[in-house]
Specification:
Layout lengths: L1 H35 L21 E4 L5 E4 L9 E5 L5 H17 L2 E6 L3 H11 L5 E4 L1 H6 L7 E5 L5 E6 L3 H13 L4 H12 L1
Parallel strand pairs: 3-4, 4-5
Antiparallel strand pairs: 1-2, 3-6, 6-7
């Protein structure tokens, strides 16, 4: 009986050690995969202002008659996310809740931008619960910022500098804009390219 207990204890300890080794191997593989899978950044367009530039000075009016000033020399208390959307863009509608959640989490002022008839924009606001947000309907703003495809986002720093901008398809794209600011680069892709050159 005693022999059976000793053998069972030895087998138990061997299993514990084996599981610990397996867990370490899995943790190592996760680390390797984390390094290989690059973070996703916004898809930066070729035209328009680039990251690091001062945002064009625009004085715009929201659908509710409020004045919104973008760029210029007057510092803002928080960063601003200009989110260009359209009622005809299904990805835009899918990303609106993510943009609202992201802006709350990062303490960023969220301003929706569009270029359509007022009736369509008010319908978009109603359907997506955007009544609490500024909504600017201006073709001029989109042209000035080089918006060519939707959904498009531009993150503006407190000092009026463009942190990052481009086509966004997921919350990860939005988060990469803040990451680019923290890394002090124009985009996550730029950081990855620089890191690759350093390693080589």
């Amino acid at each position: 009986m005693l022999t059976i207990l000793i053998v069972s204890q030895v087998v138990s300890w061997m299993l514990v050690v084996g599981l610990a080794v397996a867990l370490l191997a899995v943790a190592r593989q996760v680390g390797v995969l984390h390094e290989r899978v690059a973070p996703v950044g916004v898809l930066t367009p070729q035209q328009g202002p680039v990251a690091g530039d001062k945002a064009p000075h625009l004085v715009l009016q929201t659908l509710d008659g409020q004045v919104v000033e973008i760029g210029g020399d007057r510092p803002m208390p928080v960063k601003r996310l200009l989110f260009f959307v359209s009622a005809q863009c299904p990805i835009c509608k899918k990303l609106i809740p993510a943009a609202k959640s992201f802006a709350r989490a990062e303490n960023i002022e969220l301003i929706f931008m569009g270029d359509d008839t007022e009736a369509k924009q008010r319908s978009l606001i109603e359907q997506n619960g955007l009544q609490a947000y500024a909504f600017v309907n201006s073709a001029h703003a989109g042209r000035t910022l080089g918006v060519d495809k939707l959904p498009h986002a531009a993150l503006i720093a407190e000092d009026g500098r463009i942190i990052a901008r481009g086509l966004v398809n997921s919350r990860e794209h939005l988060e990469s804009m803040v990451m680019a600011d923290e890394l002090n680069v124009g985009s996550v892709q730029e950081y990855l390219r620089a890191s690759k050159l350093v390693r080589e």
